[in-house]
């Protein structure tokens, strides 16, 4: 059962330039959009989720399970990059939730929709206020990364497009890496070719 002490932050405000002109978030794999899959799995794996969306996104068009206006933060300057978007979202969480509402924040990338719910539950079980938890597959570090509440002030200082890597580098003693058998923790779908491979994988497993 998913731990209730964590919040999944589903990052879906990027430009996705490598994917072309199509809105990558709405590209289908196994009959469901990348974003819908990522949102569904994040909510199931962590118990509660917040979507970091683009200004002007229509929730009806995004077609996400159990989404409410309270479950969405619209990034004010999404063009500044992933790190900046994380900082904006964490600042929003700081302002709108009680300080001790969550022990950790799981930064979930919307273009990694094939991660198993069981994998997310394993990571959630390891989450804690004073730890950074990261999955790996065959020695390769993956996502999502869980940042304990102790590190949120550092997340709020992020800038640019490097995500939370700077926080991991600044706190190596607090990082717990969990080796998993789920290759999807290292599989982001950022090109049409990668989408085709993902579709084949879903068809193979169905």
UniProtKB/TrEMBL annotation:
Pfam families xrefs: NTP_transf_3
Residue ranges of the TM segments: none
Molecular function terms from GO: nucleotidyltransferase activity
Keyword terms, alphabetized: Magnesium
Cross-referenced SUPFAM superfamilies: Nucleotide-diphospho-sugar transferases (SSF53448)
Alphabetized InterPro entries for the sequence: MobA-like_NTP_Trfase (IPR025877), Nucleotide-diphossugar_trans (IPR029044)
Superkingdom of source: Bacteria
Name this protein carries in UniProt: Nucleotidyltransferase family protein
Domain (MobA-like NTP transferase): residue spans on this chain: 8-171
Organism from which the protein derives: Halioxenophilus aromaticivorans
Keyword 4Fe-4S: no
Recorded coiled-coil stretches: none
């Amino acid at each position: 059962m998913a731990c209730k002490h964590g919040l999944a932050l589903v990052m879906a405000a990027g430009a996705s330039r490598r994917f072309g002109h199509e809105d990558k978030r709405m590209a289908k794999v196994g009959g469901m959009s990348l974003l819908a899959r990522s949102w569904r799995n994040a909510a199931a794996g962590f118990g509660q989720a917040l979507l970091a969306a683009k200004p002007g996104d229509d929730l009806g068009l995004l077609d996400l399970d159990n989404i409410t206006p309270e479950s969405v933060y619209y990034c004010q300057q999404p063009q500044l990059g992933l790190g900046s978007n994380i900082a904006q979202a964490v600042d929003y969480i700081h302002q709108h939730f009680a300080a001790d509402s969550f022990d950790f924040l799981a930064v979930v990338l919307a273009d990694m929709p094939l991660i198993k719910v069981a994998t997310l539950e394993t990571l959630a079980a390891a989450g804690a206020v004073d730890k950074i938890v990261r999955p790996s597959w065959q020695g390769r570090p993956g996502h999502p990364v869980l940042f304990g509440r102790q590190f949120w002030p550092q997340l709020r200082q992020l800038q640019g497009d490097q995500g939370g890597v700077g926080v991991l580098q600044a706190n190596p003693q607090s990082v717990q890496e969990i080796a998993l058998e789920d290759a999807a923790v290292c599989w982001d779908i950022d090109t049409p070719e990668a989408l085709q491979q993902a579709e084949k994988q879903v068809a193979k497993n169905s």
